[in-house]
Amino acid sequence: MRRTPLGGALTAAVVAAVLAASPAAAQEGRGIAVGGRAATTGFGAELAFPLGSRAAGRLAATGASYDLEFDTDQVTYEGELELVSLLAVADLHPFGGGFRLSLGALIHDNALAGDAPVRDLLLEEGIRLPPGVELGRLRARATVDPVAPYLGIGWGASPRGRGGLHLSLDLGAAWHGEPDVDLDLSTPIPVGVLPGGATFIAALLAEEERALEAELSDYTVYPLAALSLSYRF
């Protein structure tokens, strides 16, 4: 697992917002909290600020990538799940304590990307190449809606609680819809100059795109679990 450059940029943006907001918040006597976050969306920073005696707002920027395999009937793709996101939520503490209900949105640039040998796609169509002959690589990328509604529960410091270090937990889900797949072919062979070559390849790619989308169609919800350690000023 690795942090992504964009995830780092989002984290830096949250930290900058904290530094800019802290003086004004201190003058108003509000307890802004800033800290680190480890989640199923990656690692990053979190900013929390009270909106009343039983409500608060939070921003959390995270990013990471995970090695992952995905496949259709015959084609296996070696790839990565790329995670870059900003979670923006309003927390309601109905009992005035640590328990909270969270509602908001996951704004992200998450994607699943991978590649596979063209040989596997042709084999799926019953076409066998001689040993050692390679025609290139298939490159697939699956994306979902960039803004996903989020609903969750958790436990953390109450909006008007004491200052100092606080540990918090979040459990929830973001609804991002069915993935959309783009599939390209990278090959040194000029298939377009062959009679019917371009049409044949285009049909194969379209069929494989549909197969990938069918395989991924059940993944419409992203589960989110997070543990944060923050300091309230």
Task: Give a structural overview.
- It is a single chain.
- The chain is α+β, with helices and mostly antiparallel strands and 233 residues long.
- It has a domain at 5-115 and 145-179 and 220-232: Porin.
- Helix content is 22%, strand content 49%.
- It has three helices and eleven strands, in the order αββββββαββββαβ.
- An eight-stranded antiparallel beta barrel has the order 1-2-3-4-5-8-9-11.
- A hairpin with an 8-residue loop joins β8 (147-155) and β9 (164-175).
- The longest helix has 24 residues, at 5-28.
- The two termini are 32 Å apart.
- The model is unreliable at 1-8 and 17-29 (pLDDT under 50).
Major sheet, described briefly?
8 strands, antiparallel, barrel
CATH-defined topology of the domain at 5-115 and 145-179 and 220-232 = Porin
Fraction of residues in H or I helices:
10-25%
**Quick one: CATH class of the domain at 5-115 and 145-179 and 220-232?**
Mainly Beta
The coarse silhouette is: elongated
Sequence stretches where pLDDT stays below 50 over 5 or more residues: 1-8, 17-29
Structural class: alpha+beta
Strand % is: over 45%
